[in-house]
Amino acid sequence: MLGSVVVGVGIAGCVRMRDLLAPLPSSAAEKLSIKGFVSRRTLEDQQGVKQITMTEALSRSDIHVAFICTENTSHEESIRQFLEAGKHVCVEYPMTLSYTSAVDLWNLAQQKGLVLHEEHIELLTPDFKQLKKDISGKTLEKGTLHFTGGPLKPNFGFPSFSGIARMTWLVDLFGELTVTAASLVEEKENKYMKMTAHFLTQQQKPLTWIEERGPGLGRAKTIDFNFQDGTITELPDGQREPVGLFMQDLVLFGRKLQGDVSAAELQAERSRILHCLELADRIQQLSENAQA
Ligand SMILES: NC(=O)C1=CN([C@@H]2O[C@H](COP(=O)(O)OP(=O)(O)OC[C@H]3O[C@@H](n4cnc5c(N)ncnc54)[C@H](OP(=O)(O)O)[C@@H]3O)[C@@H](O)[C@H]2O)C=CC1
Ligand SMILES: C=CC1=C(C)/C(=C/c2[nH]c(/C=C3N=C(/C=C4\NC(=O)C(C)=C4C=C)C(C)=C\3CCC(=O)O)c(CCC(=O)O)c2C)NC1=O
Question: Any idea which positions bind NADP(+) (predicted)?
Answer without folding.
Answer: 9-12, 39-41, 93
